[in-house]
Amino acid sequence: QSEPTPQGEQMLVPGVRPVTTRDRLGLLIDAPMRPRAAQKPLDVGLFDEAARNQLDRFQRGVLP
After folding, report:
1. Which of 9, 18, 36, 63 could form a disulfide with 3 if both were Cys (CB 3.0 to 4.6 A apart)?
2. Are 3 and 11 in contact (CB under 8 A)?
3. Which helix (H) or strand (E) is 52 found in, with range?
């Protein structure tokens, strides 16, 4: 068997079938969802890493 490609006719290995449009669409459907736009980090409340990093309060000389 063979299949046409942009580079020309390609021979197939015995037992291997060509990838169809249906196969490609099935892979896209089964793939995990991705956001359409870049997401902003969640830096509020419990997830705010900068607010949780307050070691300067425990350093010597800062507290009265």
Report:
1. 18
2. no
3. helix 49-52
